[in-house]
Amino acid sequence: MSKRDGLHPLRRSHSLRPSPDQWRFFRQWLKNPLAIAAISPSSHHLARQMVAELPSGARRVIELGGGTGVFTQALIEHGIAAPDLLVLELNEELHRHLQARFPDARVICGDARELPAIVALSGYAEGGPADAVVSGLGLLSMNRTMQQGILEAVFAVLRADGRFIQFTYGPRSPVNREVLAELGLHVRRASMTLRNMPPATVYVYTRQRSRAIRPTPMR
């Protein structure tokens, strides 16, 4: 070890050791790499950038693809009360992990395209529409039909000026342009962080005009 290194070899190796959440996430990726967009959880730096895009005074938030809970924890630390937070996770093991970690939040195992029904059946709708939906879903790898189904469902449960906040590993918005045009949505590139693996960019989606977006029933 050189003097410039400044780290004891054992300490250095320990700092590089994956956390339990990283191992949990990676195991689920190995089981189904097409269903999970990354091989490791999102970083805390990305989580802070996502939370920074919440509307002013946001109180009710829905999270899609909760994973190991990085965004969930950031939302709670931001001031979103756990009972006002609905977290959707399709992977059963990650869903159980989130339930145990956030017992006061509504954590549901389900498909994002069924969000309006989930919001109604869970009782979350009784508090009114959501102020924002924060997403960790891998939209970039989805086809147009699936993207449109998810976006329709999202904007059906958002308030008129609500925001859909999504990150991507690609160089541009992960949502198909035709889907944006069909649903009358505006997209804004918000921020980028290199302190994530891989580097990620945050995009914010809003309605271009006030109109109801009704979800297409799943077949």
What is the highest CATH level, the class?
Answer: Alpha Beta
* Strand residue content: 15-25%
Question: Low-confidence stretches at least 5 residues in length (pLDDT < 50)?
Answer: 1-16, 22-31
Largest sheet, in brief, is: 7 strands, mixed
Structure overview:
With 219 residues, the chain is α/β, with parallel strands linked by helices. It has one domain: 3-Layer(aba) Sandwich (Rossmann fold). A 7-stranded mixed beta sheet has the order 3-2-1-4-5-7-6, sandwiched between helices. Helix 3 crosses helix 4 and helix 7 runs parallel beside helix 8. The longest helix is centred in the last third of the chain and has 14 residues.
Could you give the topology of this structure?
Blueprint: H1 9-15, H2 20-31, H3 44-52, E1 61-64, H4 70-78, E2 85-88, H5 92-101, E3 106-108, H6 115-122, E4 130-135, H7 144-157, E5 158-168, H8 177-183, E6 185-193, E7 200-207
Parallel strand pairs: 1-2, 1-4, 2-3, 4-5
Antiparallel strand pairs: 5-7, 6-7
